[in-house]
Amino acid sequence: MPGFPFARLRRFPDVEAANLQAWDATDELLVTRALDSASAESASGRGLDGSAITVIGDGYGALTLPLVAAGWRGIRVHQDLVTGRRALVRNARSLADDGDPEEPGFAAHGLDETLLRGARLVLLQLPRSLAELEEVADAIARWADPDVTLIAGGRVKHMTLAQNEVLGRFFGRIQPQRAERKSRLILASDPRPVADRPLFPVTTRHEDVGLVLAAHGGAFAGDRIDIGTRVLLQVLHEREPELSALSARPGFSAVDLGCGTGALAASLARAVAGQVIATDRSASAARSARATMAANGLADRVTVTLDDAGSAIPDASVDLVLLNPPFHLGASVHEGAGRRLIEAAARILRPGGEVWTVFNAHLDHRRALAAAVGPTEQLARTPKFVVTRSVRR
Questions:
Q1: Has residue 173 got a pLDDT over 70?
Q2: Cα–Cα distances in Å, from 114 out to 101, 111, 214, 230, 255?
Q3: pLDDT tens digits, residue range 292-310?
Q4: Rounded CA gap, 92 and 105, in Å?
Q5: Which CATH number fits domain 202-391: 1.10.3720.10, 3.40.50.150, 3.30.70.20, 3.30.70.250?
Q6: Where are the domains of the chain?
Q7: For 6-191, CATH number?
Q8: Which of 60, 135, 179, 277 meets the CB 3.0–4.6 Å disulfide criterion with 217?
Q9: Is the overall model pTM greater than 0.70, yes or no?
Q10: How would DSSP label each residue in 180-202?
């Protein structure tokens, strides 16, 4: 790793800003420890091939690419966000000495057996969600080599003893390390026996809205309905006649942009005729939404896609967009992700199409919607949330 150009890594196509960077001290500590582990394996005569290394939670390539630069090939990588996957590929191409993207030294995988079968070393950027950590730990204990070592790391300010407890349910040996540069590593080994079936997705029936929600560990709000979504669901119910009139347009189509577990898309599919697309940049969310549609008998009515801000949806092709934009980027409070979705909604809407948005009342999204989409009116307001309707110019 000495001399690896971390500063050249970019977040693009994710949001970029002066206070957002593509790596942190945790990435550097994880890579250093991985190199030390590889040296120890070689000294013991066992060696460590790149195909026995799995990387989980690499933001933009700061874990994978230094290992490739050190000579390893065949590394398996899982990134939940499609923006991270695209950034990793772009950064690999940018750093390649020969400019050849055909041999990047790594391969993308879902969080499944293909990612972990035979893995002896797993690097993990700790997720903030305990449910996501539980799903990841279960997968490692279930499918990795019995001699696997997990090296997990995070920023100290975001770490809790509960993370150790979760790991302790899946590994017999847990070794927290001393903090360095405001980051800390945890070593885990000796995987414990696991249940016959994976723990996720979990499902819950919400009688008040008549839906079953399914959730994988990394899905926002899990199998609950977050407050903002619940407010927008109420507005959809109260204004169902208006939605029905909108859906009477020839070739009507609708998109739940940033769908999460799919509550809005499922509710909309029951209220209107026509095509409904549910899309999210999180693989955990997309898997959850597919499971939600199946649980509600809507798999043939809703198409779920993994995509970044609806990039695969043609311009001016949609009549209705439902939007509950985030206001965090990872651990940072930042409106950039929400603004990108607002701009995406403007791009994919037909003239006269509408975007119905719910957002935290303190945010200035109404102004952004008016500028990007068109005339915007308030449909509902609670102490914490605002629901608006914007009509595409």
A1: yes
A2: 22, 8, 23, 37, 31
A3: 999 999 999 999 999 999 9
A4: 9
A5: 3.40.50.150
A6: 6-191, 202-391
A7: 3.40.50.150
A8: 135
A9: yes
A10: BTTEEEEEEEEEPP--SS-S--E
